[in-house]
Design brief:
By secondary structure, the protein is α/β, with parallel strands linked by helices. The chain has one domain: Metal-dependent hydrolases (TIM Barrel). The protein is about 30% helix and about 10% strand. The strands form 3 sheets. Strands 7-8-9-10-11-12 form a 6-stranded parallel β-sheet. The longest helix is centred in the middle third of the chain and has 20 residues.
Length: about 400
């Protein structure tokens, strides 16, 4: 007898998806370093060892008509705000969703390229959204760790085979890894790097996901694998959960407003973990971070080292914490017009752009217009760096023969 899943969440009426918008005028060649994909139901089909075929993650329908992922008998719903692009404003709510209520570009690579063309995005780096979480944590929590590792590998194979290989110039491959066993996690990073993956995502504050914090030697195999293979350690703000909430606070409003504070907290922890000082080749990108806090942090770090004496434990005697911050970290802009004046302090070579398709913060289909409004007063050399040159260098990704501006 088939099991019936009941979430106790009613399904409100939904409106049809909006028609395709007209393609936007392209002023800049753009690489978006923070977009997202949703996993379609077939991800794990034929990609797991035979002994796991009966327990593979799968999509099931609930009694209320939601479609949810089920892994080890636990349902995980798709959050509505993961896929705002193309939905009517009335349908932009936090709730489990069905695949037909999302733009096909959320989960189909061919439709995604079409949506990138509408938006004027040349290439895209995509974080997970649905079954794995932004930081790819779910499979590391598996009761059966062998199954968890098999699911990690299958997810990476799906991204590589169906997304990157189909459009190698348009899709920058980002992987997930096993977090519950850093040695096996490092092996997976190396396996992926050998076939062309350029990045891996882990939760930006892993202790919030019941993992050791970043100051523990636990993380060295994964950090070393990233540094030695050139794999960018890609930390998405919110991948370890929202910030803390006071009783009575509006969760969505407060959580969305705390992305900046969460980004600076993440950056401070990773910087003072000494991993970037120990591994000068380590590259850390903080997605959906903005840049407004970076100049302030640089000033604070210089004060700590020069005047207060609080930084006496810093291990790199040749490079200060602010030097290492500007050497090892990259910061992502989505719509930060008031922070443009800080670019010189942040370091123009370490700022990259994002569209955040298809999330609620995303600027699709008007990313070109948003970026033009924000960057138009800058020197053209700086615009090129932010819009594509920095990302192409960071992720070692090719650019088209003809580039704008």
């Amino acid at each position: 007898m088939a099991r019936v899943i009941k979430l106790g969440i009613s399904r409100p009426a939904t409106h049809p998806l909006l028609p395709d918008p007209e393609p936007r005028a392209v002023k800049y060649t753009m690489i978006s370093v923070d977009d997202h994909l949703m996993e379609p139901p077939h991800v794990f089909e034929g990609r797991l060892p035979k002994k796991f075929e009966g327990v593979a993650p799968r999509v099931e329908e609930t009694e209320e008509g939601h479609q949810v992922w089920v892994f080890e008998d636990t349902p995980y719903f798709q959050v509505g705000f993961m896929c705002v692009a193309g939905r009517a404003r009335e349908d932009q709510r936090v709730e489990p969703a069905r695949f037909e209520e999302m733009r096909k570009g959320c989960w189909d690579p061919h439709a995604r390229i079409k949506d990138m063309d509408i938006n004027g995005v040349w290439a895209s780096l995509n974080y997970p959204s649905g079954v794995t979480g932004f930081g790819g944590t779910l499979f590391s929590e598996a009761k059966d760790q062998e199954l968890g590792l098999a699911c990690v590998r299958a997810w990476n194979d799906w991204v590589f085979e169906e997304w990157h290989l189909a459009y190698p110039e348009r899709i920058i491959p980002l992987g997930i890894t096993l977090l519950s066993d850093p040695e096996k996690g490092a092996e997976e990073i190396r396996r992926n790097a050998a076939r062309g993956f350029k990045a891996v995502t882990i939760p930006e504050q892993p202790h919030k996901q019941n993992l050791p914090n970043v100051f523990q030697p636990y993380w060295e195999p994964i950090v070393r694998a990233c540094a030695e293979t050139g794999t960018v350690l890609s930390l998405h703000v919110g991948s370890s959960g929202f910030g803390t909430f006071l009783p009575g606070s509006p969760m969505m409003e407060v959580g969305a407003s705390k992305f900046g504070p969460m980004a600076i907290e993440t950056c401070i922890d990773w910087l003072w973990s000494y991993w970037p000082a120990k591994y000068p080749d380590l590259k850390i990108a903080i997605a959906e971070s903005g840049i407004g806090w970076v100049a302030m942090l640089c000033d604070r770090l210089d004060n700590i080292m020069a005047r207060s004496g609080y930084g006496s434990g810093w291990p790199d005697k040749q490079n200060s914490p602010s030097d290492v911050l500007r050497r090892n970290f990259w910061f992502c802009m989505i719509d930060d017009p008031s922070t443009i004046s800080t670019l010189d302090k942040v370091g123009i070579d370490h700022v990259v752009a994002e569209s955040d398709y298809p999330h609620g913060d995303g600027t699709w289909p008007d990313t070109q217009r948003v970026m033009e409004r924000m960057l138009s007063g800058l020197p053209v050399e700086w615009i090129r760096k932010i819009m594509h040159e920095n990302a192409a260098a960071l992720y070692r990704h090719p650019l088209p023969a003809h580039r704008l501006p």
